[in-house]
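Researcher: Go.
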Amino acid sequence: MPPSASPAAAPKRVSRAQFFRTPLRRAGALVVAIAAALGGVTAWQWWQDGPLRDAEAELGRGNAPRALALTEYYLDLNPGSGRAEADRARALSLLGRADEAIEIYKRVGAATTDELRAWARAHILRTEWSRAAPLLEQSLRLSPADADILYELTTCRTRLGLLTEAIESAERFAALPGQGARGNILIGAIQADRGNADEALLAYQRAEALAPDGLGLQLPPEEFFEQHGSLLLNQGRDAEAIPLFERSLAARPTAAAHHLLGKALARTGDIEAARRNWNAAIEIDPAGVTPREELANLALVAGDAAAARESITPLERLAEQRFESAYLFQRLAALEKDDDAFAAWKKKADVLRDRQQLIASLEQVMASSPNSYWAQVVRAHKFATLGNLAQAADMINGIKRTDDEDPFVTELREAVLGNGPLPALERVPVKQF
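Model: Structure:
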């Protein structure tokens, strides 16, 4: 008889020590332990980075003071953090502390669109357009439909005289949803700088069609209607310009709009209405120049020397530098039959007229051939004249030095880089270009 079947054997218990002596199980336990440790580190790091996440949220809301405080607190605990330094630089840029922001970005660089824009904004605050533009171009490659980047890049290109490139980015900006009116104002301003009056006017008309009340634009309604009217006035369409100047004054009375309305009215034959507007302009801005010149011209045409002198006497010092005022003093001397004064003012007016014509010629060169050698030279001189030595230095450093460099360029280079006196613009060899 076969032996009876024995009951199933009970499973053998394995001690904890025996379990860990099993190679496969020991490796599995090690993985679990490492994962647990890494999870703990990650959780700790996530908790420790809390102030930095809060700072970045505040930056997104535009609360730069709070973001700066949080990043500085984080850096006290974690000195040398590149991410925190970059966030601090963004906050500094938003607060207008451009020098500090730029110094940080020079050390840590920029890795995101927001950081590139903040770095560019810091250079814009310092009017360093040629340094801001490449950063904005890099930002645009990362965010090709970002309206703010396109707007700021267009501004930089315009300031640098790169008007073809500025039109390209302005048109991209205008094509974005909701940006048609603002974009067309940009296009109109650039086309005006290029001397394309018809295209400029069409752009302003498109902008007005999209924003008939002049609201929601990058400039207040009074300036929008004033600029639109000026384009018509410059084309001799005086009667069409009058309603736009009136709309500008209805939005907010300004000396500029009163002056321009007076000019349009005078051209259409309403001299008394023109006179009223020029006097209104002086009431708003007693230091205004052009309304006084307009009133002086009316008096000179009428043969009223006393009224002419009353209008332009406050401009006598300015007339040493401004052709229009100097010419009025010349005409007044002729009316008063003062030969000595006439000769003196004629000499000044002739020099100032020649300079004005030279500047107009140079502006045309900069607009028509912005990348040419002499356009860059003249633009560097212009930036230096306006006191923007940093941008002038960037421009002059980009102009290659040659053995046969014109003396004007050499002196300009030395003046800009050494902060010395600028060479006279009259020495530009216009015949060379």
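Model: The CA atoms of residues 205 and 212 lie 10 Å apart.
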